[in-house]
C-alpha cells in the first residue's frame, strides 16, 4: 500500500533519526534491551539515540542498518530501503520473523568480522613496514 499520505512517513521533514531507529527496531520486533545487547551498547544509550539526545558513531550506524535490515541512508534521512509506514507492513508468521531476526543477527556478525579483519590487516601491514626499517 503506497499512497501519498504514507509515501513520506519517515522522510527527513516528518521524522527524526530517532523516530526511524525506533520504527525499524519495532518492525524487527526487538526491544531496546535486545537491540542494545546485539550492538554492544547500554540500553540507555540506545534510548538516547531513539529520543534524539545523542547519535551513534559511524560503526554503530552501519551495525544498526545491518541488524535492522534498512539502508544507512534511510536511517539518516528517510531515503532508501527502510520499513513500511504503520499499517502497511506485511504480516509475517512467527517462524518467518524468527528467520528474519536470525538473518539480521548474522549480518551484524559478518559486519563485525569484516571490521575485525580490516583492523588486523592494518596492524599486520604496520608490523611488516616496521620490520623493514
Describe this structure in words.
With 133 residues, the protein is mainly alpha-helical. It has a single domain (4-132), classed as lambda repressor-like DNA-binding domains (434 Repressor (Amino-terminal Domain), Orthogonal Bundle). 65% of the residues lie in helices and 0% in strands. It contains 7 helices and no strands. The chain has helices spanning 4-7, 17-27, 32-39, 43-50, 58-68, 72-77, 94-132. It starts with a helix and ends with a helix. Mean pLDDT is 82; it is low at 1-6.
Strand content: under 5%
How many strands in all? 0
The helical percent reads 55-70%
Which term fits the overall shape? Answer: globular
CATH superfamily: lambda repressor-like DNA-binding domains
- Which stretches of 5+ consecutive residues score pLDDT under 50? 1-6
CATH C-level class is Mainly Alpha
What is the number of domains? 1
Number of distinct helices? 7
CATH architecture: Orthogonal Bundle
Task: Predict the CATH topology.
Answer: 434 Repressor (Amino-terminal Domain)
Main structural class:
mainly alpha
- Rg over CA atoms, rounded to whole Å, is 18 Å
Average residue pLDDT: 82
**Distance N to C terminus:** 64 Å
Give the ordered list of helices and strands.
HHHHHHH
